Amino acid sequence: MKITSFFKKVLPVLLAGFLWSCDEDFNSIGSDIIGDDSTNINSTYFDNNIAYSKATGAVQSGKLPINSLGVINNPVFGKTITSFVTQLQFVGGVNPVAGVQDATVTRVELTIPYFSTLKQTDSNGNRTYELDSLYGETGKFRLNVYESGYYLREYDPSTNFEEYQKYFSDMYDEINNAKIGNRLNDSDDDEQNDMFYFSNEEYVTYDEIDSTVVKERIAPQMRLELNKDFFQQKIFNAPAGQMDNNNTLANYFKGLFFQVEDLGLESHMMQLDFSKGQVSVYYDTPETETERRLILNLAGNSVSLVQNQFSTDYSNALSNADSVTGDEKLYLKGSDGSLAYIELFGGGDSAELEEARDRVESEKWLINEANLIFYIDKTQMDNNPFVPFRLYLFNATENIPLSDYTLDASNKLVYGGRLVKEDDKGVCYKIRITDHIKNLLKNRDSRNVTLGLTVTENINLSALATLKDGIGLPETSPYRYVPFASVMSPLGTVLYGTNTTDAKKLKLEIRYTKP
To answer: What is the spatial distance between Cα 362 and Cα 345, in angstroms, rounded to a whole number?
Structure first.
């Protein structure tokens, strides 16, 4: 089983910049002073923190830059099935076939490129690719592409059309109930529908005259034949005025629904950029001797749709989460899964925080570095093939990135959050929050905010999505938002929390010098 993504490609570079391993940190726990007397570098740990898991519920999942499609059966978290619905748009915004008479649709193809890496090219020019962002290589699922009957409007009428409409991940039933007609990918080739899988093979076209001459080589992509009779009626026999531009098109032809059905086979899910997809409608007219093409982009409003069948253990862990004393284990899962909240020094203006501030002031600490180190529960995760490559920590009270994240211009290499492995097994994640801790301990009027911890598909994307259950909560509530980059990821991990006697419990590490 192989899992790849953008972050896996750069992981060796990231690890090279990692200043010390998690195990070295773990071995130093309980030691106040490290280094030698000439440097006077000290290290101390604060373990009076509170961390707990919380279910996200349905999450805002419209217009994501990356969407999952398929089935993933995680041994810890359970099964997740992701489908997708999107509008279509004309290239240039205007119907290019308006006024075309007596057109005959000859074929229709839907194409969506995969994330892939070219591995080798043989002497005949044949290319071998490896698919990226693929979770489970050997599984299959049923893929049905329907005409969508659900109108995805741009603006929210409840806000007097002043705000964009929010769409959420729990809309599968609404979209499914509104689908129209039979599936459009009705080819006799069951690899395009009933037994679909993401193929790593390149697509090769040949010269029309000499079939031995390669005309074009295309990197791996989804390539489906769609029903040409449907598009004959929908496009060329459309009522007048229904397809003049993208606005009228959105009302008339509301889009495509990519429905995924689980076959009970192995996991098979991929991350896709649907916005690079196209529907190509090829047609002839009596006036032309060559085949023409109408392109419809998979653009406009879209929604990622999620169906979860959570495991009993995962559901129980979320139901029994303790925001007062903290959890023994922290459960992080992307999409509409869960995140963790962290209250440093017990949260708010606690006595522990004031004691730490007094110590910093009286001993004249110069804080060199501060880290949160999250150790992985190896019992649950060592044999789990679906492990996230990076975590993201943010200010959940004010719903903004931490200053350490904002100040790091090195692709967040210093900020960290990446998975550290030993013997090809995940050990921990370390996130540097030096600036945040300096401000908290040295400025007594600074606010001890709640921190949010999530998985992330893209560390450079910090924008926040709305939690459906968080609508209506006060702006200062930490339960209103989750990063879009977490919504985009189907992966999860289990970490040691704060309510445990295990030596790997979550601690705040501070390295400092003093006179």
So the answer is: 19
